Amino acid sequence: MTPPRRAPREHAAQEGDELNFAPSRLGASALNAHAPAPALKRRKTLVNDNTLGSVPEDAPSPERAEDGGLPAGWRHQQLDVLCGLIRDQIQPSAAVGLPYVGLEHIDPGEPTLRRWGAPEDVRSAKTRFAPGDILYGKLRPYLDKSALAPFAGICSTDILVLRAQADRAIAEFLVSAIHTKPFLEHAISTTAGVNHPRTSWNALKVHALAVPPLAEQRAIAGVLRTVQRGKEACEQVLAATRQLKQSLLQHLLTYGPVPFAKAAHVPLKQTEIGEVPESWRPTTLGQVADIGYGVQAAVAHLKDSSKGIPILTNVNITRTGDLDLTTLRYCEVPQAKRGRFILKKGDVLFNWRSGSQEHVGKTALFTLDGEYTHSSFILRMRCSEAIRPQFLAKYLHWLRSRRYFARTRQQSSVNSVFNKSLSETIPVLLPPLEIQDEIAAQLSAVDAKLAAEEWRRSALVALFQSLLHHLMTGQVRLPEFAK
């Protein structure tokens, strides 16, 4: 078979794949995973003196006693019993047509491989792998990089090629086991080296995994695959919706909120940022918004929420134009300066300074309840009656997507800068207020779609992690095996 040259299309959930893990799918044991185990039935078995004896109801079965409380039929087995290390070295010149996989091609925590390179991209000897092999990143194992190979190829020597023993382990089950927390912790604990910490096969092979019979391995892998495909389908929708948003943004800020079929009939004029409708009025940001710096303070250590109010910094503004409150710092604002530094709903926040030019121009609309302030690296833009905050935030986001700020920024010794004085000169093409409202509404509808898909993806990620833990340890059993 001719190996693929491009990454395969991400799998969408197929018709018939079950994403609803109701009692009919995982059984009552999944819903009652934390409930007390039912009393074991009395049974006869051989005891140490080779006489028949009666086992008490609360005694563990021999399998559980031997393997640390695992379900019947499960065993703790070392990794080298379940798979072997492949050391098939090859020069790239002899691997013409075979895809190349480096560590950069494996996503952290993901069991599927989605992209790769070509052998022409590398020069030194590599390791050959076959379809179904497990590619494990031994460099910086805390990154949790391990994926199942869907085709034959070559890979970096910082990737261990593991091949499942067919009579002992299902490769798809095994790659999931390698992503579990106990295996990750073992790999991290065995690293050597400061600048380039690596683990090794000798260190990994002795780690014991909880392993069920092959039939249950196959079933567990199938359930995890279904959730993984659902997550990948969400990611496809997200990618397509983001592309739609960019296309819509370009259309709306070039032609206005008119149907695509009528765009050719809109009279346009040329400006320094491109073509816009003739009726839009040219101005500058400083003429339609009051711009102010934030609180000047070193905030990295200000983690005590009892001291002050949240201060938004550049890490709180995402590249997609949202506010991310995952990491918050806190700052006390003197009473005399509260009018200047306390944010109001409708303020537009603009990241004007960063060590990376890619972050300059990140913009978000402030709509939060409660008191917040902003750091000195964030400009606060408070709109006049001539411009809607929602429109301004989308407009600035559009300018950044066109690399306007990267082209016209100032550069200090270490930072890319687009300060208050420079920001006041940003050209703004101003449509009537009703047009601003319509543009903002259409883009907000796309944002709502993105938020819904992000939520669904996050829910599937959480479900996958929960199932990975409970199914791989036997704490939750699939109904056909929960006898």
Could you characterize the architecture of this molecule?
This protein is of the alpha+beta class and 483 residues long. The protein folds into 3 domains: 12-45 and 52-65 and 214-271 and 431-483, Bipartite methylase S protein (Helix Hairpins), CATH 1.10.287; 75-211, Alpha-Beta Complex (Adenine-n6-DNA-methyltransferase TaqI, Chain A, domain 2); 281-430, Adenine-n6-DNA-methyltransferase TaqI, Chain A, domain 2 (Alpha-Beta Complex), CATH 3.90.220. Helices cover 31% and strands 19% of the residues. The protein has helices at 23-31, 62-66, 79-82, 171-178, 181-189, 201-204, 214-255, 285-288, 338-341, 389-401, 404-408, 420-423, 433-473, and strands spanning 44-46, 52-54, 75-78, 83-86, 89-90, 100-101, 126-129, 134-137, 146-148, 153-155, 159-164, 208-211, 268-271, 274-277, 281-284, 289-292, 309-312, 329-331, 348-351, 353-354, 363-365, 373-374, 378-383, 410-411, 416-417, 427-430. A 4-stranded antiparallel sheet has the order 4-11-8-9. The protein is elongated. The relative contact order is 0.11.
